[in-house]
Amino acid sequence: MSSPLFRPTALGIYLLFFIVGIVGALVLPTFSLFLAKEIGVRPLLVGLVFGGIALASIVYNHWIGHWSDRLADRRPLVVSFCVLGFFACVIFALSRNYWLVAVTAILLFSLSMVSFAQIMAYSLDYAEAEIPAERIPLFNAIMRAQIAFAWVAGPPAGFLLATYFSFTLSYFVASVLYLVVALLSFKLLPRLEKKSAQGCNRDAGLMLPPLTPAVKRSLWFCVLAFSLLWGVNNAYLISLPIHLKDNLQIEAQWMGWLMGTTAVLEVPFMLLAGHYASRFRLLNLIRCAGIAALCLFVGVYLATKLWHLFLLQLFNAIFIGLLAGVGVSVIQALMPGRAGSASALYTNSTHLGNLFSSLLVGLVADYFGYHQVFMVNVVLVLIAIWAFAQVKSADELTPV
To answer: Which whole-number Å values give the CA distances from 106 to 38, 61, 193, 276, 354, in the listed order?
Structure first.
């Protein structure tokens, strides 16, 4: 097709995003079960691994994101990190030594996940070079939708493999998929001849001008708001299965059906967000995500029946669809010519949110119960909406 949204390079980006999403969906949802049941460690040691992964991911993404913007070609980074992911998953498949698995997860697996950020950075480079500015949010939304597609099937497949076959088979499948991404990267992603937003060729080594104080202030508020929104989402995923079982006397397995329902519904909202980003301010779309999150958590706090929760997944789909669909576009617009830094900053907001929410759930649930986590989520969403109100839009945040 002639549209840059569907040229071979764009299609390759979509495919690689989908495969990387499958890897994450196979490994991450089952990893706590792997540590607790297969290796047999106490909850504190399970949390230690996840906290270590989050902290390591923040450091890796920040340092590598800034460094990668000075490179002429990102593809060797993608391949290298996928190879590390292959070795990490092989160790998970073969070892039942907690400390070996923990060190591998924190040092290698978290580094392998930087491949996701670098594919995203490559896609932002491609978008800035090949796609009209008003269509970039739609491209980003299509790209992010591949993760949603992956999470429709990935978690059920991971639990199926782990439950009915073995964790060994599940993690071997993930290791093979990492190799597939590594092998396909050079085949599907051509080398880009990119220029910065100021018209300076990156290959010439010219430096971009520093960000203004106003832009830095807006970025800090963006990171705060995105971290809070991704954090409350993670707290919801951790708390809802236990809330279903302990407080509503509903089997926790229904959480899988709720997740699948959300994943199916959020795809059209991602695509609609990308489409309408050319007509509405990006920040207004993100603020709508905050309002949907507010409705979701108030509803979950008040819900008493399973069908209530299924209806509330519409708000969940709007929340995640808009947040994932155009979130990176907001930061990209504030940081033109810095694709690696923009993708790293956005990705780090998810890691910060996950780290914060893990502590939040532990403290609130321990003292007040899992039901009260959703009320705390309501307060945090209100803070996120306020933070977005402090962001001063760059010209790129308005429709052309």
So the answer is: 18, 13, 34, 39, 15
Residue 225's domain is classified under what CATH number? 1.20.1250.20
Interatomic CA distance for residues 148 and 165, integer angstroms = 25
Kindly state whether residue 197 falls inside one of the protein's structural domains: no
Task: Looking at the structure, tell me whether residues 47 and 156 fall in a common domain.
Answer: yes
Q: Kindly report the pTM of this predicted structure.
A: 0.68
**Which tops the pLDDT comparison, 315 or 396?**
315
Q: Is the domain of 49 the same as that of 152?
A: yes
Q: Is residue 399 part of a domain?
A: yes
* Residue in 300, 275, 343, 310 with CA at minimum distance from that of residue 128: 343
CA angle 21, 23, 27 (to 5 degrees): 120
Q: Across all residues in the chain, what is the average pLDDT?
A: 80
In a domain, 202, yes or no: no
Domain count, the chain: 2
Dihedral Cα 109, 145, 229, 210, nearest 10 deg: 80
Nearest-10 crossing angle of helices 306-334, 136-160: 140
Alpha helices by DSSP H, listed for 131-193, are 136-160, 167-188
Is residue 371 a contact partner of residue 303, using CB atoms and an 8 Å limit? no
Higher pLDDT, 10 or 224: 224
- The DSSP 8-state label assigned to residue 201 in this structure reads B
Angstrom distance (rounded) from CA 52 to CA 27: 16
For 20, the domain range is 1-191
pLDDT of 396: 42
Q: What is the C-alpha separation between 40 and 98, in angstroms, rounded? A: 9
Residues 53 and 23 placed together within one structural domain of the fold: yes
CA distance 339 to 13: 15
pLDDT digits (tens, 9 = 90+) for 337-348: 676 677 778 877
Q: How many CB atoms lie within 10 A of CB 63?
A: 12
Angle (CA) 396-146-279 rounded to 5° is 30
- Which is it for the CA torsion 313, 284, 18, 114, positive or negative? negative
Does 156 share its domain with 242?
no
